[in-house]
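ok so I'm stuck.
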Amino acid sequence: MRTSLLFGFALLAAICGSFAPAQAQQATEAPTYRKEFAYGINFNTNGGLIGGGMIRSTHLLTADMSRFWMVEVVEVKHPKEQRVQNPYTGGVYVFGKTNSAFVLRPSVGAQKVIFRKAPDSGVQINGLVGAGPSVALLLPYYIYYDYTKRDAQNRPISQEDIRAEPYSPERHRNEVFIYDHAPLFSGINDLKPQVGAHVRGALTFEYGRYRDAIAGVETGFLFEAYPKPVLLMRALGTPDDQLNNRYFTSVYLTIYIGSRS
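replied:
not stuck anymore, here's the structure
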């Protein structure tokens, strides 16, 4: 987290500096478009292999300044999550996981051109800042637990009884009987929202050979806060507010494409 914070402060300082008057290198031709629409996939330090996705709409105010709104949906994981395999069944699960968190982040913000590319080639660099609410959708993590009655030699003495249940450290103490993880949306009826807020700072590196199309990469830092800890994991003997966090920092990268009009 310390590395993320240092990176974030350095990036925000660079971006804030870019919003001050500066002699940016510009092409002599002003933009011929007024709107951009882009969508892409997100990778971040709090997510899995693919963190999520985003859409963004940008409206030009001047040749160098624009405003935007965007919606991002990402998965947020606990830093202590670790996949475990049951050696007897081959099932894989995350021990201690209580909820999966999918965060919806509507944002509004401003963007400034730092380095303008030529009309039909080159790379354009923009700085942007944005903020908005964060809505964490907490989906209970379900597992298959084996309730089959067994004798002293662990041999079944009743009909197989395997049930899908939300994980509980009090009820599911014996890891050997955690058969497998249940399908992701098993607990969709018990979905619970938790509302917080976020702020981001980023640089975009935009490449486009055509005036009506864009492709690029956005890399930045995001800070997110909630009024109370987001319950992702539980463990016997450890208070929930000590194991889970209210504040999240992440470094992210988004690859996007889009169009102009």
